[in-house]
Amino acid sequence: MTRPLRVRIAPSPTGTVHLGLCRTALFNWAYARRFGGTFVLRIEDTDHDRNTQASQQAILDGLRWLGLDWDEGPEQGGPYEPYQQSERVERHLAWAEKLLASGHAYRDFSTPEQLDAWRAEQEGRKQRIAYRGADRDLDLAEAERRAAAGEEYAVRFRIPDGETTFEDLIRGQVTIPHHEIDDWVMVRRGAASPTYNFVVVCDDLDMHISHVFRGEEHLVNTPKQLLLYSALGEPAPEFAHLPLMLGTDRKKLSKRTGDTALGDYQAKGYPREAIFNFLALQGWALDGETDVFSREQFVERFDIRDVAKAGAVFDPDKFLWMAGEYLRGEKPEELAAHVKPFALEAGWMSAQELQERWPWFVRLVASVQERLALYSDLPHWVGHMFQPHAEVPYDPKAEKGARKRERRVELLTGFADALESGAIHGSPAQWAEQTKAWIEAQGAKIPDLFQPLRCALTGMAGGPDLFETLDLLGVPAALERIRAGAQRLA
RNA sequence: GGCCCCUUCGUCUAGUCAGGCCUAGGACACCAGGUUUUCAUCCUGGCGACAGGGGUUCAAAUCCCCUAGGGGUCACCA
């Protein structure tokens, strides 16, 4: 049976935007885009205390930031509104009534205490048995009478005998025996508040979702949902359970072993395309050879059937490498724009000053581009530029190296004189040539001057071409730094 | 513990469905060289895996069985 391809993600707005959600979204999105389907975003905010408006906004913003777009969702709407689960409760309850009437569900009047007692009883058992409600076999009319009398109850699904087998698009055949599945609660006692496993099916049905791609932690929920589809007499969607993203402890990625929130990586200055690309690589590969690819290539090649079965351990090293790969590929203008917030945050100058010196800033950024992996690496390399010239902090390693050069003071002073007098002039490339010739004329080696010079100019042991740096600094400032250096390194 | 899922270099993975093209390919990391005034980039090379055991077959990373290990899940959370 073919029906229109419709996929969705249904995040619950609790806390931060988890990378796992991002990847699930990525795969759903790519599948829809590749095969011409519709990508739906539904907010799973079933009246839980943990749901917050801020979190919902963060999810929307985060996914958009990643470059994902959805065809139907809470803000733009769509043909199956509303896209907030909490606003669909009436529908859910109606489905529940239907199931109650057909006998696929029943009212369970058990109290929480009774349930606790039952659970305690299970503790000791080797073979846990699935819960079957005490009132499972209560006469329907009798149950309705007690309900009408105001007695509180939960609505439970009546799990039939047998087992459920389904075809997972990633894992193949999966079978789970029904005696493992509780008569789970569809609607909570008293509150008329439906539970996740129930509403997810109602909503997917209502929204005509054809494929459900979600994390592996939902694998064991699937039979419950499948049983529900069949009780409702409706066709079930296809399912695929994505391998989990694991922390270095090999457990489900959590804060315990590192940052898990998209926001953490945005704040650290990971390029968006790098995050996108890296996430796509968690459980999937373009061709086994290519690690760096565009989102167009991704969409062109992605198929849920090619997703790996085994969990993927999140490798921060490779992620960092990927970040650098994208960052270094940016155009200087583009990079400068990305790095701007970090420059402002460093407090070197006001936004207005930065605007005025923009061409200079772009050159400055370009000079260190190949040394950066993250946008936030910028201050490390160019921070010295904004220090008082006479007291640029010296890195101990840089200073040590400079002091090894015995003629440092003499050469530094001589070079400053040559620069000031115009003996060294022209473009940075010409300065380099002239300086090298001058060093030779002094009977010295290149590092004899260059090492102390780099220390005096930047205070750092490494960095971009010296003359480029000198040019960026400007001759007057450079002279001040060199003369101060001659004294400080004496 | 029950059930379910998984298992190729330290890590991400290609190859497994259609057994031979695999003396198992790529990438990150690591190590060693080269380039550079330095750091970084870049280039070259190296290290390094089919979880174990049985079978089937002329032939198995690929098919079957068992064992071991890892993970997920066992809520009136989602």
Mean pLDDT equals 95
Q: Give the distance, in angstroms, between the N- and C-terminal Cα atoms.
A: 84 Å
General shape: elongated
Q: List the total number of helices.
A: 21
**For the report, how would you describe the main beta sheet?**
3 strands, antiparallel
**What is the CATH class name of the domain at 387-490?**
Mainly Alpha
General description of the model:
By secondary structure, the chain is mostly helical. Among the domains are: 74 residues, Glutamyl-trna Synthetase, Domain 2 (Glutamyl-tRNA Synthetase, domain 2); 52 residues, Orthogonal Bundle (Helicase, Ruva Protein, domain 3); 104 residues, Arc Repressor Mutant, subunit A (Orthogonal Bundle). 47% of the residues lie in helices and 9% in strands. It is built from 21 helices and eleven strands. The strands form five sheets. The chain has a three-stranded antiparallel beta sheet. It has a two-stranded parallel ribbon with strand order 1-2. Strands 5-6 form a two-stranded antiparallel sheet. Helix 1 links the parallel strand 1 and strand 2. Helix 12 crosses helix 14. The model has no long low-confidence stretch (mean pLDDT 95). The chain binds one RNA strand of 78 nucleotides through helix 4, strand 4, strand 6, strand 7 and helix 6.
